[in-house]
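Q: I'm building a small set of examples for a reading group on sequence design. Run inverse folding on the following structure and report the sequence directly after it, with nothing in between.
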């Protein structure tokens, strides 16, 4: 070992990155008795499910909502951590200038009916979706737009899917395979029967899970960047970490990366990986961009506690006043967010133009927006810090060609899943595989 390197013990597992996937994997493993180290390069936990503190406001990074009964909630409750969230009322959809308040149950069906020209069109589209979900999924050779327009020429219907899917999985319906949209309709959408928001912000939610991790003996290092993943003979051996200016070598039987498949590949070194695996990642991984605009006011600027979904807008898919249910603003102030899905996720992107489109949408949907709103933050999440690490259409495995080296998170979501719920599922898949390979303390 060189003079500038130090050994830092052995662990059953080392986890890289404290986003949703990394935190869930760490919590599940420590709860099962494994000795785990979680390493995060940032000063705080959560990754893209964290909080920016600004002028007394708790501004979300990317993720805003969690399903009440979904995979993240299951992890928190399983390990005994407090899942402090506030259930939300259904979103009100604004369709051709009219606002539709949906029932608590059957929200999607009610929104679909509101967008259809008549009952015959509603029955035709509903039956097409049912057959695709229960009998045979559409071909991946068609985009969802092309598939839908076999049954209708109603652009408002397409805009509804753009709005709903855009808010959850960050895709445009003319840029995603029909099969993947139906996969989410069949599998992932059901997780969202009741949506919630973290009552005290994303960071507080993550710190609650971290408390449970530490209580079970897990260790968490922040401000510690992983520089490389150590391997020998096709097996993982540990990680090299920049900790307080010195490189520390941590030995681990398993390594779990929440940094995305491309970054994991860089940390290992392409030359150590199967060429076909590398080729697939480079050709198919496509990050998705999200823009989140945060603004404040002395009063709520929308009247709907569950949020407003302007169907057919330029780029804004949801406008919410988080202060109705969450403690994320100074006293007497109301904190709002606008979720923006760019006009394209696969073509050249002009972020300035997309923000201009979003501001036009806000002015059109909120009376006196320019007068009443105080702009707090415009968060743009493309590229290396994206809204979504991998768009629908390619589902890389959680396992890598290096034995006992795994990926978790939204870069390796199971088919039909999205965002934080899918990230939690990916973590559980990896943890269950590790349990079959070695028992705690055998590292």
């Amino acid at each position: 070992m060189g003079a500038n390197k130090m050994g830092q013990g052995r662990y059953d597992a080392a986890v890289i990155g404290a986003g949703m996937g990394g935190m869930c994997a760490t919590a599940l493993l420590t709860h099962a008795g494994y000795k785990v180290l979680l390493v995060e390069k940032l000063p705080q936990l959560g990754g893209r499910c964290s909080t920016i503190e600004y002028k007394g406001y708790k501004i979300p990074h990317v993720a805003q909502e969690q399903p009440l009964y979904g995979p993240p909630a299951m992890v928190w409750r399983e390990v005994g951590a407090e899942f402090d969230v506030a259930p939300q009322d259904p979103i009100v959809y604004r369709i051709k200038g009219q606002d539709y308040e949906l029932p608590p149950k059957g929200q999607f069906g009610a929104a679909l009916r509101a967008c259809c020209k008549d009952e015959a069109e509603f029955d035709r589209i509903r039956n097409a979706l049912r057959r695709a979900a229960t009998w045979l999924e559409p071909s991946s050779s068609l985009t969802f737009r092309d598939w839908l327009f076999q049954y209708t020429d109603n652009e408002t219907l397409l805009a509804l899917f753009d709005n709903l899917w855009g808010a959850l999985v960050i895709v445009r319906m003319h840029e995603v395979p029909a099969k993947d949209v139906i996969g989410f309709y069949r599998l992932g959408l059901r997780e969202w029967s009741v949506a919630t928001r973290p009552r005290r912000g994303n960071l507080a939610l993550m710190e609650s899970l971290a408390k449970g991790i530490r209580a079970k003996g897990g260790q968490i290092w922040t401000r510690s960047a992983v520089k490389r993943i150590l391997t020998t003979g096709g097996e993982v051996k540990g990680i090299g970490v920049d900790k307080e200016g010195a490189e520390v070598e941590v030995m681990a039987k398993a390594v779990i990366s929440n940094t995305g498949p491309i970054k994991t590949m860089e940390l290992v070194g392409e030359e150590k990986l199967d060429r076909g695996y590398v080729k697939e990642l480079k050709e198919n991984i496509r990050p998705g961009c999200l823009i989140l605009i945060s603004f404040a006011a002395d009063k709520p600027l929308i009247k709907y506690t569950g949020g407003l979904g302007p169907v057919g807008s330029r780029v804004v898919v949801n406008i919410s006043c988080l202060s109705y249910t969450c403690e994320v603003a100074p006293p007497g102030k109301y904190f709002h967010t606008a979720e923006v899905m760019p006009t394209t996720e696969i073509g050249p992107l002009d972020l300035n133009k997309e923000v201009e489109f979003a501001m036009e949408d806000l002015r059109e949907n909120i009376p006196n927006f320019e007068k009443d709103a105080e702009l707090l933050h415009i968060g743009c999440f493309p590229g290396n810090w994206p809204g979504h690490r991998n768009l629908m259409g390619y589902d890389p495995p959680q396992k890598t060609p290096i034995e006992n080296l795994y990926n978790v998170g939204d870069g390796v979501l199971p088919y039909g899943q999205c965002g934080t719920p899918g990230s939690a599922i990916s973590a559980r898949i990896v943890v269950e595989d590790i349990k079959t390979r070695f028992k705690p303390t055998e590292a």
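The CA atoms of residues 261 and 411 lie 6 Å apart.
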